[in-house]
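Saturday, quiet lab. Running sequence design on the structure tokens for the scaffold JK sent over.
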């Protein structure tokens, strides 16, 4: 097995084992499982960092030039963020979700071509490209962890918020796992490109399945009497801190991207679809911080502030996903090569 493949596989196995160890810890509350889970995350992150470094040396360029490479770095950034959150804040409810997210992102990367291709001219100013990608994906990773924490927070609130967040959580998992299964099936030629399926049919099936899962999830949470008591302030504070950490990096990512655009295309800003949606995402998180530091919005009561923050965090990350994936596949522009 080539060294790069070995590093990649070790990271995948470590993240899967970490998610299982975190799950056992939540069920048993035995501290040893949490220590094991964090240790596995560290092993996976180190292995993945070696993969990135090895690819950097092999390609004689920063490995941030296509979807495969950015997904690998995104997964690594999520893992590192999760490790710091667990070590610094010990929320005891985040690790499994973040580990699974990092694993799924890494698995998605496996669907794309590993081949190291020469850079096209627009990507050859490596300094600004490297800074742009690093800043953006550090922010995306922080927002991803905030997304996980926000859903956990909302799931602990009985009523409409629990039902809505249960559906969003279920649809996220169904979409990620279903998309991964479809991609693997296509790659292994298990079924044809169309296979008689339409996009509307696939989405409808995903909605129905997510609805059934969310109903079961709400039933379990209600039966176990899960509430926000004892966890609310910790989770809400963590949502705010992860967004506040990621926002400056998103800002720097947009600024360095503008400089790179000037070098590559002769203009700082051209309202390309990815530029536009990046700005929309920035506005959503700027509004989050405005709500956070102003203590509310349009007369909202202080006690509803944590719920509003969590909702904005979820909405913001959905914009992140559209900016990263949706723009590439649904809209044409100068960034479609990524």
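Result came back. Writing it out in full:
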């Amino acid at each position: 097995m080539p060294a790069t493949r070995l590093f990649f596989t070790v990271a995948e196995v470590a993240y899967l084992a970490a998610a299982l160890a975190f799950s056992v810890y939540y069920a048993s509350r035995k501290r040893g499982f949490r220590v094991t889970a964090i240790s596995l995350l560290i092993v996976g992150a180190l292995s993945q960092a070696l993969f990135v470094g090895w690819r950097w040396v092999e390609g004689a360029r920063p490995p941030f030039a296509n979807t495969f490479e950015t997904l690998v770095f995104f997964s690594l950034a999520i893992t590192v963020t999760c490790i710091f959150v667990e070590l610094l804040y010990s929320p005891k409810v985040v690790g499994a979700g973040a580990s699974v997210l990092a694993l799924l992102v890494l698995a998605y990367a496996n669907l794309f071509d590993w081949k190291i291709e020469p850079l096209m001219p627009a990507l050859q100013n490596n300094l600004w490209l490297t800074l742009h990608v690093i800043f953006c994906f550090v922010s995306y990773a922080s927002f991803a962890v905030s997304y996980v924490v926000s859903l956990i927070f909302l799931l602990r609130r009985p009523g409409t918020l629990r039902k809505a967040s249960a559906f969003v959580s279920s649809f996220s998992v169904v979409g990620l796992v279903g998309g991964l299964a479809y991609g693997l099936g296509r790659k292994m030629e298990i079924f044809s490109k169309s296979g008689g399926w339409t996009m509307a049919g696939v989405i409808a099936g995903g909605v129905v399945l997510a609805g059934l899962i969310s109903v079961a999830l709400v039933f379990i949470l209600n039966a176990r009497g899960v509430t926000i008591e004892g966890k609310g302030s910790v989770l809400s504070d963590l949502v705010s801190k992860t967004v506040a950490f990621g926002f400056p990096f998103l800002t720097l990512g947009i600024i360095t991207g503008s400089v790179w655009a000037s070098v590559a295309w002769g203009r700082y800003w051209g309202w390309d679809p990815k530029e536009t949606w990046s700005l929309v995402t920035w506005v959503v998180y700027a509004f989050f911080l405005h709500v956070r530091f102003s203590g509310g919005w349009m007369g909202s009561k202080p006690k509803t502030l944590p719920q509003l923050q969590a909702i904005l965090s979820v909405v913001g990350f959905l914009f992140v996903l559209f900016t990263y994936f949706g723009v590439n596949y649904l809209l044409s522009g100068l960034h479609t090569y990524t």
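Notes for JK: The chain has a mean pLDDT of 82. Residues 3-157+228-330 form one domain. Ask whether to fix the surface positions before the next round.
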